[in-house]
Specification:
Length: 256
């Protein structure tokens, strides 16, 4: 009963507690338990151990939301939004290739593995993270705040949720911080442009992750530098939406 009352009175707080608890209290043991089940070079070894961690936000959102049906339905992409999907995928691949080339890494080789990474990234990071962050938390916060404020708070929570990544080198940590901050703006604007369609944002998220992970394996130690260039690209992309984002929650977008 106390948990139900907390969810009803403090839905955002409840969501954050659940998301972090599932991702770390349950996700870390699951990671350790499954990490040795697959060959280290297998794509399964990269994604399966992280399943519980990446699905923490999605599960938390489904627990606290007032309408699970509407939240899940927001993953369905109407035909009119597929041009945004195509642009997101093209932009994701192009920026990743440019970042690695600027870092001096060899050019990409055609491979079905990139397609596999896209599928895994959509199912894991795309749906698992975005159903919670942009699918539920962003519109929930924006009911009583400006869209800019809601975007900033959602982005801050998303950054803190990625805390273990910041335990790497200072250069990588700073680049990753800049990338997450920029993507918080880019994804929020994409969400509003598609009238709250979480599916488009999930694919856009995968379009950032998949090419980078694919190219990282042949980067010859240049992945950290490439991450810096990738962050710079998305910071530039986020500047204009950030300036224009000071407006209230857009009318006509369903509240999950």
């Amino acid at each position: 009963m106390a948990a139900v009352t907390l969810i009803r009175n403090r839905p955002v707080t409840s969501f954050l507690i659940l998301a972090f608890a599932i991702s770390y209290a349950a996700g870390i043991p699951f990671n350790f338990a499954t990490s040795g089940l697959f060959p280290p070079t297998s794509i399964w070894a990269l994604y399966v151990p992280r399943l519980v961690t990446v699905f923490g936000p999605a599960i938390a959102a489904l627990v606290v939301t007032r309408s699970r049906v509407d939240l899940v339905r927001s993953l369905l992409i109407p035909l009119r939004y597929w041009p945004w999907v195509a642009m997101s995928v093209i932009a994701g691949i192009a920026t990743a290739i440019a970042a690695f080339r600027l870092a001096g890494a060899p050019g990409p080789k055609p491979s079905l593995l990139l397609g596999a990474h896209f599928v895994f990234q959509i199912v894991t990071a795309g749906i698992g993270e975005e159903l919670g962050w942009r699918g539920w938390m962003l519109p929930t916060l924006a009911r009583e705040r400006t869209f800019a404020s809601a975007t900033a708070l959602t982005g801050l929570a998303w950054i803190v949720w990625h805390a273990p990544v910041f335990m790497s080198s200072l250069t990588v940590a700073l680049s990753f911080l800049a990338l997450l901050a920029a993507l918080s703006v880019v994804f929020a604007r994409l969400w509003i442009r598609t009238n709250g369609n979480t599916g488009v944002v999930a694919i856009a998220h995968a379009a950032v992750n998949a090419p980078f992970v694919f190219l990282e394996s042949s980067a010859r130690g240049r992945a950290g530098e490439a991450l810096g260039y990738l962050a710079a690209f998305y910071v530039c992309l986020a500047v204009v939406p950030l300036i224009k984002a000071r407006r209230p929650y857009p009318p006509g977008v369903a509240h999950p």
